[in-house]
Specification:
There is one protein chain. The protein is α/β, with parallel strands linked by helices. The chain has 2 domains: 7-18 and 274-388, Aspartate Aminotransferase, domain 1 (Alpha-Beta Complex), CATH 3.90.1150.10; 20-273, Type I PLP-dependent aspartate aminotransferase-like (Major domain) (Aspartate Aminotransferase, domain 2, 3-Layer(aba) Sandwich). The protein is 39% helix and 15% strand. The strands form 3 sheets. It has a 7-stranded mixed β-sheet, with helices on both faces. Strands 9-10-13-12 form a 4-stranded antiparallel β-sheet, covered by helices on one side. It is globular. The chain starts with 6 loop residues before the first strand and ends with a helix.
Length: 391
């Protein structure tokens, strides 16, 4: 590796670098568009509305959504999940979730539970692989179960949950399936129709390759959620009540057009490259790392061994070295950017037995290379040798 080169393995937090088209789209908005969508009739406003519509169309194609208006834009997946959870559940409802959820799902559910509004069942996942048995969800269902809320791919160990099976269980119980696709949107093919997903929350700044401050919520036709916020939409301005149609019902206030211009460009890049191709590339990187890790005594990798059950999120620990120290050494001595600690998912780390220290996490992305993986393995080898030699 070139001295001073950065190896960016924190794509599970935010992807970097972004495709050149993303940067160009943002600059073009600032230099040539600049208007507010849906608020005026002049050409700059119309151009801004077109940018928003193009981004919505691209996402609808990516997720196989029939009507792009079923996708409402938010500032991130956390906001989308809050719209879904707080907008659907009523007092007395029962919710099922998994023991490896991110706090973006856990915190709103725990809030409602603490208020006495809902009953919550957390189904245990495997401490070895993070897997979730749909039959456990079926057994947890009650007459008042209204929502099954789960992630698609774990942000801690990268395992995938069986969405189609979970959707079938949820629907048999008369409930909706809410999916947190923060880690999989853009990195793993998602067909909401084929999978039976009712609500899909996604963020734009990870594998969708867009900027921060972008995300959205897919809402299946026929589902009516209470809006999280109410205000100006640029539509039905004669009314003092929130519009009842999508996406305006969930898009109060001026949208982040600058960010959505970049997000639209990121999604179009993925459509041209093919998410299947991104998936294959990341599996190649994962396989390279797992094969090397198996030869290093003192290196423990968490999650399923089967590549088909993993995305490009790898958590590990080195014997005798805290995750925080490993992360610091990788950054300062080797220029490798990682994420250490609990990853906003204490439930997952309790499931794995890695609480409270957490793990070191590599978030691999579509622009990482095998050379970078090999370099990271060399760096970990040096750290382990120093540990054995008492340095």
């Amino acid at each position: 590796m070139t001295p001073g080169k950065i190896v960016y393995f924190d794509n599970a937090a935010t992807s970097w670098p972004k495709p050149p088209d993303v940067q160009s789209a943002i600059v073009d908005y600032l230099e040539n568009v600049g208007g507010s969508p849906g608020r005026s009739g002049h050409r700059m406003s119309i151009a801004a509305s077109r940018l928003v519509g193009d981004a919505r169309d691209a996402l609808a194609e990516l997720f196989n959504v029939d009507d792009p208006c079923q996708i409402a834009f938010t500032k991130n997946s956390t906001e989308a999940l809050n719209i879904a959870i707080l907008g659907w559940l009523k007092p007395g409802d029962h919710v099922i979730t998994s023991s490896i959820e991110h706090n973006s799902v856990m915190r709103p559910l725990r809030f409602l539970e603490a208020q006495g509004s809902i009953e919550l069942t957390v189904v245990p996942c495997s401490p070895e692989t993070g897997s979730m048995d749909p039959d456990d969800v079926r057994r947890a269902a009650r007459p008042n179960t209204q929502l099954v809320a789960v992630l698609h791919g774990s942000n801690v160990i990268g395992n995938l949950l069986p969405l189609a099976d979970l959707a079938a269980v949820a629907h048999d119980a008369g409930a909706l399936l809410l999916v947190d696709a923060s880690q999989t949107a853009g990195a793993y093919p998602i067909d909401v129709a084929a999978l039976g997903v009712d609500l899909l929350a996604f963020t734009g700044h990870k594998a969708l390759l867009g900027p921060t401050g972008t995300g959205g919520l897919f809402v299946r036709e026929g589902i009516d959620l209470r809006p999280l916020a109410r205000g100006g939409t640029g539509s039905r301005s004669e009314l003092e009540y929130q519009p009842d149609f999508l996406p305006d019902r969930y898009e109060a206030g001026t949208l982040n057009v600058l960010g959505l211009a970049g997000l639209g460009a990121g999604v179009r890049y993925l459509l041209a490259r093919g998410v299947d191709g991104v998936r294959r590339h990341e599996q190649t990187l994962i396989a390279r790392f797992l094969a090397a890790a198996a030869t290093l005594p003192g290196l423990t990798v968490y999650g399923p061994p089967d590549l088909a059950e993993r995305i490009g999120v790898i958590s590990f620990n080195l014997a005798g070295v805290s995750p925080s120290k490993v992360g610091l050494i990788l950054d300062r001595e080797f220029g490798i950017m990682t994420r250490i600690g609990l990853h906003c998912s204490p439930a997952a780390h309790r499931t794995l037995g890695t609480f409270p220290d957490g793990t070191v996490r590599f978030g691999l992305g579509c622009f990482n290379t095998l050379c970078e993986v090999d370099y990271a393995v060399t760096a970990l080898t040096h750290i382990l040798e120093d540990q054995r030699n008492g340095r």
